[in-house]
Amino acid sequence: MGSLTRTSILLAAVALLGGAAAAQLAAYDAGDEGNPTAAPDPTTQDWILHEGGASNTLLTDVSPDGSTGVNAWAVDDLFTDGGSWADYRHLFTAEELALAQIRGWEYTTRMRMVHSTGVDVVFEFASGQQAADDRYLIFFEVAGNDVLAHAYLSGIAYTCSGAMDGNYHELQLRKLPGSTGDEAELYYDGQFLGPVPAEASSGNAPDGGVSWGTGSSAGMGGAYFHSVDFKLSDPTEPELIDVFTSGDGYPSYRIPSILTTASGTILALAEGRAYFSDHARNDIVMRRSTDGGTTWGPLVVLHDDGDNSLNDPCAMQVLQGRNAGRILVVYDRYPNGCHADCVVPGYDGDNICRAFIQHSDDDGLTWSAPVEITEQVKRPTIATSIASGPGVGIQKRRPPHAGRMIIPYNQGPGGEWKVYAAFSDDGGDSWAWGELADDSATPGVANEVQMVELTDGSLLLNARSFFGTSHRKIAHSFDGGLTWTPVTDELQLIEPGVMASTLRHTDPLDGFIARLLYSGPLSTSARVDGTIHLSYDEGVTWPVAKLLYEGPFAYSVLTVLPDQRIGCLFERDNYSSITLARFSIEWLTDGADCIGSGAEGYCTTSPNSAGSGALISSQGSFRISDNDFHLEVVNGVPQQHGIFFYSDTANSVPFGDGVLCVGHGSTGVHRLPVLQMDFLGDANLQLDFPSLTGSDVIEPGASYYFQFWYRDPGGPGGSGFNLSDALTAGFCP
Question: How many domains does the structure of the chain reveal?
């Protein structure tokens, strides 16, 4: 075991990626003073003894330890005759290691240094990817009345002042939840000492785990261990960040809207109110974040219409087609002194509720002047008040009417509200309204509404219920929002009468499984206890529900954050603030579900004898335990053979008639079974994770690069073979 020759005491903390919630993965406990009377052997608590050299290390109970009275287990290298050493190891599963990366971890020992004569450490840790920076290793050296804590290869040493005073002290390595860097943090008796860099392992370390004990040397070293503990960090989700606070800029803020743009900017909108009333000379205001919602820019007033009130902001982005990239914000206006109960039908006169739209072509930095669109979204008769959303609008991605912009609307008169969609097929330049959804078959009426596109191209509306059964109201449209099925009560989703949010979280069009989200109070009587619901079957069932915020929780709007986490902008604590909650699908499902990093295309395809070139894509789940990840290729050469292959690195070099986009990787290139393309030049393969062995295994928490090689005897380059473009995908347990 190694070639270094001096003794040390080591605490090797390995963090390869950890847990979905606070959880202890490994522990040694010598017991309380006198209970038990002797410290148990660590091997009785799921630790593996690993010895080397002459095997002369003293391993024994030393309870009670002198004047301290502490129960402890000694690991003491007493001899200099052959480099004796011993450590205790605990190995983790791949799932445990991958979860630790997500949640962070804490590796803690309470110990007393006894003696040492050297500082070199030979013990190492490896995850099975020995070239990677995959372990954190600390060793200790006596220095007078202090102890020096050394980071193995980096040369960094920290002083643990007074650690040789005969008492037990706590040493802890900590990797912060959500941390993606290559550093852990070292603490001594709760005091932060500094960072510890990750280092590469060699072949003698445990294959994914933690260890404690002595290193290999011809010197001497020893310590008494009272406890050792490795656990996943306490959950930090959801994170709560106040975006609008009543009294800061405006006496009151209400009615949130939030949009994550294609470039990753987050825009939060609200009504800035002169006092606490629905029509209080409201302005439409906005704040902007470019770091995932951690910090926010200054308050921006999009529209101040004097004494009139602006209501119900509803934001959306044009993602494809005409005006692609443009951000739209729609809202309505009530004249001063005339609220929802006094506005009248029609377009002319003073007491008219009107609709406006503004747009930005630079991710919300600058905005157009407001443009009135009342006659495009409001019926000339019957409708008195109208309200966009509030919340968000969407753009359809599938037929029928792929590319259509959808604004969810409701119209008055009060007590007789109806919901419908306004839509645009030219990127928001012009609008039209669809039919009213018929809610006559259910008690009460539908009001504030949100809409989401389902994977079959239909639309699902989810609306507030007035005078009904305290359940959400839903209906479907199969013609892009023109008409709706009769409204029914969604008995799985209760409410107290409140605006709520529904949103597509992940889409098979992006290579993910289908997930829908819903946020709203879990109460029929009060706006409290905001809860997030999750559906895997397009809203047919909602099997997952988790409390997001206990206490006052009113209007809320969901968004998908740039890092694939979920954001919920909600009114809390009796409207004292509008707050962004950030959380992951892992938190929502208590670790039962995960996103992975999805699939993203890269590199280029090359023309083949059949056309413009083969294209690779994926379908299914990035969760290894689902075993439902599929690779697909189209536009290859009909009836020819080919293979999918992958590695953990990318490349871009000419190869055959195409470009080789997958590198050799740390464990080589991995080839999947030979396939024959069909008469269209297409092929597909399910990647069977359980059948992968050895270096072929796909590890959770890592990214891989996939490509398709195929024969092309008549190809334009004359090499006889070609390649598709490539995709990269990340996986989770």
Answer: 3
